[in-house]
Prior knowledge:
Blueprint lengths: L1 H10 L12 H13 L3 E10 L5 E12 L3 E3 L1 H10 L3 H21 L5 E5 L2 H4 L4 H12 L6 E6 H5 L2 H14 L2 E7 L5 H7 L4 E4 L11 H16 L3 E4 L5 H10 L3 E2 L8 E2 H9 L15
Parallel strand pairs: 2-4, 4-5, 5-6, 6-7, 7-8, 8-9
Antiparallel strand pairs: 1-2, 1-9, 1-10, 2-3
The structure holds ligand C2E and magnesium ion (MG) (3 copies).
Amino acid sequence: xxxxxxxxxxxxxxxxxxxxxxxxxxxxxxxxxxxxxxxxxxxxxxxxxxxxxxxxxxxxxxxxxxxxxxxxxxxxxxxxxxxxxxxxxxxxxxxxxxxxxxxxxxxxxxxxxxxxxxxxxxxxxxxxxxxxxxxxxxxxxxxxxxxxxxxxxxxxxxxxxxxxxxxxxxxxxxxxxxxxxxxxxxxxxxxxxxxxxxxxxxxxxxxxxxxxxxxxxxxxxxxxxxxxxxxxxxxxxxxxxxxxxxxxxxxxxxxxxxxxxxxxxxxxxxxxxxxxxxxxxxxxxxxxx
Length: 289
Ligand code: C2E
Ligand code: MG
Ligand code: MG
Ligand code: MG
């Protein structure tokens, strides 16, 4: 009967893809069962090291494989999961899946890292560091191969608690990255106060990089700032070759974007990598067993 009820809910989702309010309960019920079952999937987007030219890692991006609606994107269901208090379970699912896939890739000789996104409530969850530690142990992945991406709104919620969680994560050796950097306010204040390893510049600054001098000034000065702070910088949303060329010339460390690759299922990642000899990471491609 779930499928039938699911279908009814699906038909009344709003045109922008978000469930209409009278269907929120319905959708929430579906989301809960998606979390119990195997409808939540993780896609991976490669992260390119612009100096060596090779792929150094992937970002894990959650997807909901809905029985009737097909692939549902996180912008649609994450707000609902957040309101319903499901973010801890969601984060653990994504971490588990990502670390399992990473373990397999690393076992095959690929020297890769995985970046997992955290939400506001994840950073308020004092149990998180211990859970991350258990998962790293379970999958025998070194903490340094895990990057946790945090958006600036996380940092504004309850600073004392989120700083405690961040400190706990860093004690494990996990790396922290500020996602969508530059879109929140007082970004510079966090940079001063918080122990982060990487800046991930929001893609809005990159869209017209090669034609907009202001955008390019912002990218270049943020790059300089990250260098001076001893942090790595990732530019996300690279959609064309000209942007990639400019970033490389400016000395940007890492890039992600549709021009390099779109997020893809785990199975497709190795095939994609095999077709990109220039991007192959240290260790080479694993042999099929
Ligand atoms: P984000 O972490 O900033 O991820 C980047 C988003 O930009 C992804 O959208 C990615 O598919 C998209 N993207 C990558 N390259 C390009 C490009 O060249 N052009 C354009 N236009 N877009 C590009 P996605 O997968 O829909 O994720 C949206 C947001 O949802 C993420 O933004 C992140 O904040 C959140 N999210 C995704 N997965 C998770 C998760 O497992 N947990 C949590 N808490 N949040 C997640
Ligand atoms: Mg991210
Ligand atoms: Mg981002
Ligand atoms: Mg984002």
